Amino acid sequence: MTDVLARTDAVTQERRLVTEVPGPRSRELAARRAGAVTSAVGSVLPVYVERAGGAVVVDVDGNSFIDLGSGIAVTSVGHAAPEVVAAVQAQVAAFTHTCFMVGPYEGYVAVSEELARLTPGDHEKRTALFNSGAEAVENAVKVARVATRRSAVVVFDHAYHGRTNLTMALTAKNMPYKNGFGPFAGEVYRVPMSYPFRDEPGMTGEQAAARALALVETQVGGENVAAVLIEPIQGEGGFVVPAPGFLPALADWCARSGAVFIADEVQTGFCRTGAWFAAEHEGVVPDLVTTAKGMAGGLPLAGLTGRAELLDAVHTGGLGGTYGGNPVACAAALATIATMREQDLAGAARAIEAAMLPRLRALQERTGVIGDVRGRGAMLAAEIVRPGTTEPDAGLTAAISKACHAEGVITLTAGTFGNVLRFLPPLVIGQELLADALDVLDAAFAAHAPAG
Ligand SMILES: *Cc1c(COP(=O)(O)O)cnc(C)c1O
Fold this sequence. Notes:
By secondary structure, this protein is of the alpha/beta class. It has two domains: 4-77 and 344-448, Aspartate Aminotransferase, domain 1, CATH 3.90.1150.10; 84-342, Type I PLP-dependent aspartate aminotransferase-like (Major domain) (Aspartate Aminotransferase, domain 2, 3-Layer(aba) Sandwich). The protein contains 14 helices and 15 strands. It has helices at residues 2-9, 24-34, 70-73, 82-94, 106-118, 133-148, 165-170, 205-219, 246-257, 308-311, 327-342, 345-367, 394-406, 431-448; strands spanning 49-53, 56-59, 64-67, 125-130, 152-156, 188-191, 225-230, 260-264, 288-291, 302-307, 370-376, 379-384, 409-410, 412-414, 420-423. The strands form three sheets. It has a seven-stranded mixed beta sheet with strand order 4-10-9-8-7-5-6, sandwiched between helices. Strands 1-2-3-13 form a four-stranded mixed beta sheet. Helix 5 (106-118) runs parallel beside helix 11 and helix 13 (394-406) packs across helix 14. The longest helix is centred in the C-terminal third of the chain and has 23 residues, at 345-367. The protein binds pyridoxal-5'-phosphate (PLP). Belongs to the class-III pyridoxal-phosphate-dependent aminotransferase family. Keywords: Aminotransferase, Pyridoxal phosphate, Transferase. One of its GO terms (molecular function) is pyridoxal phosphate binding. Its cofactor is pyridoxal 5'-phosphate.
C-alpha cells in the first residue's frame, strides 16, 4: 500500500513535454490500434496513457498533461486518489464479484445509504446500482413507467442520456450518437430546452418551461406522461444552464400531472457544480436521480436513487444485472464520497469557478469569438461563434482544443454544433497548475483567434 501511495505522489503536478506530441511510443501504439481496434471508437488525444495522478496524465513517452477533462467528469477526486486506490486494493484482495443478486454484500448497501443521504430531499429513498450512466437512465424510465402505468417520456433539445437503444432515443444529437442506428424506442417526445444564449433575449425560465409544457399538453397529453427527464445542466449538449425558474416549473408541472421528475445527474453530480447535486442550486427535489461518472473515482458504477414508493413499485427481480454494484466499484465509491466530504470538494469546485470565470470572461472580451461563458463550479464552458453573431464556429473550437493538446493540456469540446470548449478539471487540481493550463488556453486563442 505504501508503494502505491509513493507511486501516486510520484506523478509530479506539472505540465512537461519531453518529446513531440504524439511521441514515438504513442505513434507505435496508434499503428497497432489501427489494425486491431474499430475506427468507430474515437479518441480525443493522440497520445497513449501510462499513468496518472491528481490532475496530471503521463503518456508512454513521458509527457505530462494537465487534465481539464477528468475522463469526462469522472476523476473528480483526482487520478489515483490514494484513499480510492487503497480501498480498491483491499476489496480486490477480499473478493471481486459474487453478483449482488446471488450473494449480497455490505458495500452495495452502504453506497445506497450514501446516495439516500446525499441526493436532494429528506423523503424515504431506495437505490439500485448499475454499471453505466446509460443503464441508470434506462432503469429510471422503466421505474417511472411501472410506477405511473403510463408510457410517454419527455426529453429536451440538446439532451444527452447515453448510447444504448432507449437512451439513443432520449439523446438529441444525430451525429455521431444516432446516425444509422435506428429504429429507436418509441414514446419519447422532445421539447425545447431553456438555452439563454440562443433563446429570445430576456426569456425567463418560467416562460421557457411554459413553451415546452404547452407542446407536451397539446401533443402528448399530461395524463400520458410517465416522466420528464432532464440534465439540470446539460453535459454533452454544451453545458447549457437553463434560465432560473425553468427546472422548478418543470418539477411543479410533474407534481401536478402525476409524472415522475427525473434529474439525470450523471455528469453534474458528486460535487462537480459546487454542490453534491446540481438540482440543489434551484432547490429542486427530483423524484428520481441518476448518477455515475464522478461517483466512483474512475471505476464503473451508476446509481438510480429516488422515492421509495417509485422504486419499490417494481416487482422483485425486475431490476438488476450481473455486474451492477460490483463490490470493487462500491469500495471505490465509498472512498470517493468520503474524500469529497473530508476535502470539501464541492468547495473546491466553487474555488475553481472563482479562478476560471474571470479568465474566461477576459478571453471573451479580448477575442470576440466567445459568444457565451457559462457553467457552475468546475463545469464551465465557452461557446465559440463568429464575432458579433451567434453563428457556431466548430472549426475554430476544434483548432483551439487541438492547440491545447499539443501544448500539454487536455481539453474537451461539446455542444450540438460542436462549438463549445468545456472544462471539467479534477476538483483536486492545484491553483498554480490550473493557472498554467489557462495560460496555454490564452496562447491557443492568441494563435487562432487574434484579437480584433
Ligand atoms: C455520460 C452521460 C450519460 C451516459 O453515461 P455512460 O456511463 O456513458 O453510459 C448519461 N447522462 C448524462 C447526463 C451523461 O453525461
